[in-house]
Amino acid sequence: MKPFLPQGMAWLCLFLVLTACEDNVPVPPASTPEPNVFSESDDAEKERVLLEALREAEATGQQSSDLAAALHDVGELYRVRGDVTTAEPYFWRALPVWAASVGATDPRMAMSLSSLALVFETRKDYAKAIPLVEQALNIREMAYGVDHPRLIPSLEQYAGLLRLVNRIEEAERIDARLTHIAAS
Question: What's the rounded Cα separation, in Å, for the pair 19 and 17?
């Protein structure tokens, strides 16, 4: 059986279909490089874009939510990469900017607190992580109420930390609360 399209035409059709897709997925060349080369270049591009956004936000000289978001996003990029030493100062810088721009009880403040807690959790410094998660949870409870589904990530993070420090009964109470929220 003959192929429907010659091999060269098949690659061209595939290329045209993929470039027409909304996500604009890159098509690797015929000799595929190492699998992580594309993700590393994407990651480098994300870093470049986030650092440029941070520079622009800093250039205004204002303690704005844009600056806080840029600081958080850069910190989160480094945290996700596993570079918690580089990530930590960005979160610390974001917190007072969030407080000044949107208020210390805004859920965006909780986002940076949770990320900073993950930095300490990675370092196994649970004594520093737990109060940050508790503070993030309190902020989200004030913003959304005590039974809102948006509390689930904070509650899961909190229960996980409690287990790590062998506070099992408290973790089980949090799990019961999670079950209640999920059932609502």
Answer: 6
Question: What residue has token string 């945290």?
Answer: 79
Please, are residues 163 and 171 in contact by the beta-carbon 8 Å criterion?
Answer: yes
Neighbours of 63 (CB within 10 A): 13
| Distance from C-alpha of 71 to C-alpha of 51, rounded to nearest angstrom | 9
Closest CA to 112 of 128, 130, 88, 131: 88
- The contacts of residue 150 (CB under 8 Å, 6+ apart) are 107, 140, 144
* Confidence (pLDDT) at 37: 34
Q: Which of 129, 115, 139, 123 is nearest to 159 (CA)?
A: 129
Segment 147-173 shows an average pLDDT of: 97
Whether the CB-CB separation of 123 and 149 falls below 8 Å is answered with no
- Kindly tell me if the per-residue pLDDT of 15 is higher than 90: no
CB distance 169 to 151 below 8 Å: no
Q: Which of 31-45, 70-84, 117-131, 153-167 has the lowest mean pLDDT?
A: 31-45
- Amino acid at site 87: A
Q: How far apart are CA 147 and CA 154, in angstroms?
A: 12
